[in-house]
Amino acid sequence: MSKYSALFEDEDDIFLGTPISKLMDIIFTANNDVVRFDLENFMRQRAVMEILLEEHLGENYFEKVKTLEALRGDDIETKTKSLAIELTGEIVSKSE
Question: Within 13 Å and on the Cβ side, how many CA atoms surround 74?
């Protein structure tokens, strides 16, 4: 377990919502330029990762991704929440 595992135990306990719902709240209330910059950067990172996956796993990498989702759903859910918290923090810290 990571040192942040307590953040994920009860989604409604600490933040009164899930990390994803809090990210959505921030996206719609934070400085628009900051949100655009961080979302564009996030999409660029996604594009790089997809290119790497295609190069290393072939054009049908998406099937392998779906298989991994089925096998490691809990790990993926935890990582998704972690990424949402990270992106929320980046946007909030730049919007102050």
Answer: 4
